[in-house]
Amino acid sequence: MTTYTARANRRNNWYGYLFISPMMLGFLCFLAGPIIYAFALSFTDYSLLHPASFVGLDNYVQLVGKDPLFWKTVGNTLYFSAGLIPLNLILALSLALLLNQKLPGTGLFRTAIFTPVVTSIVVWAIVWKYVFATDAGLLNQILGYFGMQGPAWLYDTALVMPVVIVVSVLKKVGMNMVIFLAALQDVPKMYYEAATIDGASKWRQFQSITLPMIAPSIFLTLIITLIGSLKVFSQIIVMTEGGPGTSTYVLVYYIYQLAYKVFDIGYASAVAFVLFFLVLVLTLVQWKFRKRWVHHEQ
Amino acid sequence: MSNKLQKNASSAVRFMLLAIVAAIILTPFYWMITTSLKNETKVFQFPMQLLPSPIEWENYAKVFTEQPQFLLHYWNSLYIAVLVTVGTCAVAALAGYAFAKIPFKLRNVWFLVLLSGMMIPSEVTTIPSFLWFSKLSLVDTHFPLIIPPMLGAGGIFGVFLLRQFFITIPNDLDEAAEIDGCSRWQILLKIMIPLATPVFATLSIFTFLNSWEDFLDPLIFISSSEKFTLPIAMKLFTDTAGTAWHLLMAASVMATLPLLLVFFVAQKKFIDGIATTGLK
């Protein structure tokens, strides 16, 4: 019996490690290895012109103390996140609440609002850039019909970020809407029936039943949307290229500029590590909250 | 009676709100399609044409004559996305099954280690990867667009989804198969994978979309125009003379259409899949 168990264990170990080996190898070569290397690079002065030399914390000191563009970049990224998240979540939740009641055309609306999620972000950004174009753009032409002179949306330092935020919200709001819709449909109907008998108003029911019941979904989408917003890049490079001036410089765009345009690899790695640190903290918060993701055993 | 009226009125208001949001979201598609069919001289006409007249179907043919490599770029995007999707499903199925069903040593430790990779943004690892890939002469090849997404964070997401699914399958099922003399491979191929079809569908659409719309990686790793993928090929429609909007929009329609068609055909299953595969 023991030999049988020993053999079974050996076989289990062999198949277990065999089956996870491609992913573990990938983890080593494409995630763990590069992140350690990036961390090391962030302590070097390294460009294409000269080999890497160790400079200690110089890059980080420079970043924090002597680089106004870095702080501008952090500020822009936070501005983007702060604008995107409430808009995205409130719109997604409102749409989910509207769709959760059986109205004619519900399926059609759901499909329409989800469509941008399966549209390439580059195409999405290109078309919106054209919609917001100053002279030939659809929006300013429509404004023109009403005798209004539309602004230069993408060339105005005050307007450009809100425009990018709206375009980004419309791209992804369908995803969060579907997640909320699924959560709403899981709330037991009897809670509402009981509340109605007790005379609770619709708003009161929303506050006391709906919100607490779907809170885990709200938290999850909040964190996922927040992490995604810190990594915004494609719509920025397509629509604004960081401009006008530096008014839409965001973290990934700055990393891209530093690493592949200026070839300041050490410094770019330091900025990249700031991004990694932010994402790390947020992910840990999320994991702590969703323990069952990891400890979900039979 | 007034109660019913009130109810109808509130339904109408809700319907209107949904219609407005849907209209705003569909506007770019309307603008993209109508512009793609406009005569070059009508693109900037004021007041604008709401519907193209005459309808220039030739714009679509012109995309291929003005950009002779467009078909090649299309093919590059397509084969890369298909490979990444198939590969991700395969490696994720193997690892997801092992983590759910094979009691090997340190299983949960390895699972946690792998999951930790999900918090490493690819935006951060591109710099070291670029240095390594250039040493291995893999820059300006499609390798960095195929293998790292498959075995990196995208693959881990797949492992996670499939593990969560396989765990819900009763152990009796694979134990019975083992007693009947099925090997681990046979159990995986003949029992587990067919059961997980809905999970693979969701994972496939996400993986395909991520690869299809990936912009940063091709921008960094690809420099020869014959190796471009569609997202970076779009810039070729802009030159010093300006942007050929009618052609760019025709190219955009062609770049968007396959995914939209797949989505429209399978949309109910797909949206339900998102709702049930642990994403909520």
From TrEMBL, chain A:
Belongs to the binding-protein-dependent transport system permease family. The lineage of its organism: Bacteria, Bacillati, Bacillota, Bacilli, Bacillales. SUPFAM superfamilies: MalF N-terminal region-like, MetI-like. Keywords: Cell membrane, Membrane, Sugar transport, Transmembrane, Transmembrane helix, Transport. Coiled coil: none annotated. PROSITE patterns: ABC_TM1 (PS50928). InterPro entries: ABC_transporter_permease, MetI-like, MetI-like_sf. GO terms for cellular component: plasma membrane. It is a multi-pass membrane protein. It comes from the Bacteria. Residues 74-286 form the ABC transmembrane type-1 domain. PANTHER family: ABC TRANSPORTER PERMEASE PROTEIN, INNER MEMBRANE ABC TRANSPORTER PERMEASE PROTEIN YCJO. It comes from Paenibacillus endophyticus. The chain crosses the membrane at residues 14-40, 78-99, 111-132, 152-170, 209-230, 265-285. CDD domains: TM_PBP2. One of its GO terms (biological process) is transmembrane transport. Pfam families: BPD_transp_1. This is Multiple sugar transport system permease protein. It is found in: Cell membrane.
TrEMBL record, chain B:
Gene3D superfamilies: MetI-like. Signal peptide: none annotated. GO terms for biological process: transmembrane transport. SUPFAM superfamilies: MetI-like. The keyword Transport applies. It is found in: Cell membrane. Keywords: Cell membrane, Membrane, Sugar transport, Transmembrane, Transmembrane helix, Transport. GO terms for cellular component: plasma membrane. InterPro entries: MetI-like (IPR000515), MetI-like_sf (IPR035906). Belongs to the binding-protein-dependent transport system permease family. This is Multiple sugar transport system permease protein. It comes from Paenibacillus endophyticus.
